[in-house]
Specification:
The complex is a heterodimer of chains A (about 180) and B (about 160). Chain A has about 180 residues and is of the alpha/beta class. Chain A contains eight helices and seven strands. Chain A has one domain: Glycogen Phosphorylase B (Rossmann fold). The longest helix of chain A is centred in the C-terminal third of the chain and has 11 residues. The chains are: A alpha/beta (about 180), B alpha/beta (about 160).
Chain lengths: ~180, ~160
């Protein structure tokens, strides 16, 4: 029962720190999570989290156990697909690539929008997908309560649009398609 | 883009992939795709970026000019029947070059732009430029909201999904 947290290639300290806040960890335990695995990118934990969760010691990767939860983190991996596929729920930044990857796996998914970025057009997609019921969308501040949102386990399954009809349409315009 | 051309059969046999020179992953993907369909008639061209994220406007005029010269040579050499474009700024010089040769009747080319799935409410800068100067034969969007806002764009319903 792993909760996988990913920031992709972005810098999103608010997300990784908020996931390790007391409230969030408590709520993750409530929904049955036993392990929190974080991909933190270029980000850094804040001092309060380092002291409370990691007993003052952090590096580029590491693990600890805290209040009955196993916590592990790393910066980057060539491919995070496996970690994602093994997860029970995913909490991620609202990047398009991350969104589509997680949805293809049909996992319960919370996207966290970085409200400190101006004109964050990446979030457009997350908001749209949330409106259509494929994922939950929140900001770092509302993450703890979103973890307990019952909708998390009854999300719609997303089918990526096939491009078959688009390809047919293009063939017709060029004049090589079947009519 | 690869998702889309997977649905092409042998209609477009000779393919040229144009990849930004700063892009490190697309080349492998393109090669893997051509291998999977046992085709060797393809080439990969690297185009200089028209504008890096955050580059100043003055130097981007120079680099856009550079990219346009590259695009003109490339289109003149390959003489495509179809030009498929997506996202980044590098697509503008390619579209300009293809439209130019089409206009002077050197080639008869269909120019198609596909907007990224990330764009839900507004076209990207590249998409908007191509939309407003009307240089594409078809501008494909992936969300109905965009179609409403930009009536000349094309939104194709996924029929499979509707039948559910």
């Amino acid at each position: 029962m792993t909760c996988f947290v990913t920031v992709g290639t972005t810098l999103f300290d608010d997300l990784i720190n908020k996931v390790l806040s007391e409230e969030s960890l408590e709520n993750l335990k409530k929904i049955g999570v036993k392990k929190v695995l974080l991909q933190i990118g270029k980000g850094n934990f804040e001092q309060n989290v380092i002291d409370r969760v990691f007993e003052g010691v952090v590096a580029d990767e590491g693990s600890t156990s805290f209040g009955g939860l196993e916590i592990e983190y790393y910066r980057f991996k060539p491919s995070i697909c496996d970690d994602m596929a093994d997860a029970f729920i995913v909490i991620g930044h609202a990047g398009a690539g991350t969104c589509l990857e997680v949805l293809a796996l049909h996992l319960p998914f919370i996207t966290v929008t970085n409200d400190k970025l101006m004109d964050n057009h990446q979030a457009e997609l997350a908001v749209q997908l949330a409106d259509e019921g494929y994922l939950l969308q929140c900001t770092p501040a509302t993450l703890p309560e979103t973890i307990l949102n019952a909708g998390l386990f009854s999300l719609r399954q997303f089918e990526a649009p096939t491009k078959k009809f688009v390809a047919e349409h293009i063939k017709q315009i060029v004049g090589v398609g079947k009519v | 883009m690869l998702e889309l051309i997977k649905h092409f059969g042998d209609e477009f046999n000779e393919r040229t992939y144009i990849i930004a020179d700063t892009d490190t992953i697309s080349e492998d993907k393109a090669i893997a795709h051509e291998k999977s369909r046992n085709n060797e008639r393809f080439s990969i061209e690297r185009i200089p970026r028209a504008r890096e994220v955050g580059q100043s406007y003055l130097t981007s005029i120079v680099s856009t000019f550079h990219a346009t010269v590259f695009a003109l040579k490339l289109i003149n050499r390959t003489r495509p029947d179809l030009v498929l474009l997506n996202g980044p700024g590098t697509c503008i010089p390619i579209a300009l070059a293809a439209a130019f040769f089409d206009m002077i009747r050197v080639i008869d080319t269909v120019i198609i732009y596909e907007e990224s799935i990330c764009r839900v409410k507004r076209l990207s800068l590249s998409g908007a430029i191509l939309y407003y100067i009307g240089m594409t034969d078809c501008l494909i969007v992936q969300w109905p909201g965009l179609k409403r806002r930009y009536p000349r764009s094309t939104y194709i319903h996924d029929l499979d999904k509707k039948e559910e």
